[in-house]
Amino acid sequence: METKNKIRVLIAKPGLDGHDKGAKIVCLALRDAGFEVIYSGLHQSLDQIIRTATQEAVDVIGLSIMSGAHLPISEKLIAMMNKNGLGDIKLTVGGVIPNRDIPTLKEMGVAQVFPGGTSFDKITTGMKLLFK
Amino acid sequence: MLKIDDIRSGSHLAGARLIRLIEDNEPSAIELLKSLYANTGKAFIIGITGSPGVGKSTLIDALIFQFRELSKKVAVIAVDPTSPYTGGAILGDRLRMQRHATDPDVFIRSMASRGQTGGLSRAAKDATTVLDAMGFDIIIIETVGAGQAQFDIASLAHCVGIVSIPSSGDGIQAVKAGILETGDIFIVNKSDTPDADLSFIELCGMLEMRQSREFLRTLPPGLPPKTDNGHPTWQPKVLKTIAQDGTGIKELTHTFLSYLDFMKKNNLLKSKQKTQEKLYFKTLLKDLILEKINGFMDESKYVETALNDIQLNITDPISAAQHVVNKTIGHKIKE
Ligand SMILES: Nc1nc2c(ncn2[C@@H]2O[C@H](COP(=O)(O)OP(=O)(O)OP(=O)(O)O)[C@@H](O)[C@H]2O)c(=O)[nH]1
Ligand SMILES: [Mg+2]
Question: Are A37 and B88 within 8 A, CB to CB?
Fold first, then answer.
C-alpha cells in the first residue's frame, strides 16, 4: 500500500455557523478522493484551528464559512498561521462567498476559494492541484 | 528544518512535524528518532481499545480532563482505519476531545492506519517515542482492536483498557476475540443503558475464570498468584462508566495510576518494557531487511535473468526464486 504523498486536510468551521451537514459531506468526498481528513467540529475558535492544524501536521486547512465573515476570518487566520510557523500550510475557503470577494481572498493568500454550489469533484481536484 | 532540541523541549510544532515525517516514511525522521531514544522511558502509555462506537474517544476526552486535574501532561494518538479502496480516511476521534485543543499541555494526533488495516503500525510506536521525548506524562492510544497489524495494543501500551458496552452476550464475544487475555482494565461504558449490571457481572465472572486458570498454573496453592519470576501479578479490574457525563471516570483514572504504581513497585514495568523493546527491535529488523530486499529486487541482475528464464520456460518460478536466493543472500543467512 502506498504510504507516501498522502494529503492531510483539516476541515474546520469557525464561528457561530449553525450546522455542519455540508462540511461533513465534503469530508466524505475528500476521503473518497484519498485524503486523510480531520474534522474538528462546529464553533471552532481560530486558536483551536491553529493548534489543531499544528498538532495534526496537516497540509491544508479547509474553512467552511456561512456567516458572511469570510474576509476578516481569513485575514486573521492567515496572520496567525504565519505567526505560528504554519506559513507553509495552504488555506482554502468554502461556503457562502460572493464572487466579488474571491480576488480579495486570493490576494490575502487564500489558495483556493470554493463558493457555495462548487461540485465535490471541483473541490477535491482543486485541493489536489495545490500539491502538484 | 527540524531541531532535536525543539522536540526535547516539547514544541508541538516540531513534534507534530517529526511524527508526520515518520508517518510518511521519510528517511530524515530516522536520524532524529535515533537521538530521541535516550530521552524516552518516562511516559506511562495507556491503550484504549474496543469495538467501533463503544465510546473510546468520549472516554479519552473525560480521561484527559481527569489527568489534567492531576497536572499531568497528556498526549493522545487516535488511530482510525484507512479505506482500503481509496487510501483515504476520516479521522473523527479528535472531534470528541476538541475542548482540550487549546490546552498547551495536551497534544492530540489523529493517525490513519495506512498499510496496517485497523491496527497499529511502526509509525504509531515511533510516534509514542516522539511524544515521550517531548515530555508527556501520559500517552493514550486509541485503536479499534481488530485486524492485522505490526503491533497489537498490548505490545505497545503499558496498560490496556478494553472498552465494551452493555449487552447480553458481549462478554462472550470478548473471549472469542481473545482480548480477555490482553486487558488489564475492563471498562463497561454507556452504563446508563440497559443491562449494564448484567454485563458488569458477566465480565467479572469471565475474569475470575481467567484468574483461576492462571492461579492453577502457579504453585503452591493458597498463595496469591505469582508470575514465573516470583512477583505478584496485576489482578484485572472491571469498572462501569458513563463517558458522556464523566460518571466513573475518576475511579478509572485512579485505577490506571494504581496499575502503574503496582507495576513499578513489583518491578514488572521494567520487564514489560524489555519484552516490548525486543518486539520493536525485531520488527525494525524485519522492516530494514525487507527494504534492502525490495531495493535488491528492483536492481539485481540475478532477478532479471531469472524472470527472463521463467518467461522462456527454461525454468519454473520456484526453482528460479530458490536459485536467486542461494546465489545472493542464502549462504549468508545460514551462517
Ligand atoms: N449513552 C451513552 N452514550 C455514549 C457514552 N459514551 C459515548 N457515547 C456516545 O457513543 C457514540 C460513540 O462515541 P465515540 O466516543 O465516538 O466512540 P468510539 O468508540 O471512539 O468510536 P470509533 O472511534 O468510531 O470506534 C457517541 O455518540 C457518544 O456520544 C455513554 O457513556 N453513554
Ligand atoms: Mg473514536
Answer: yes
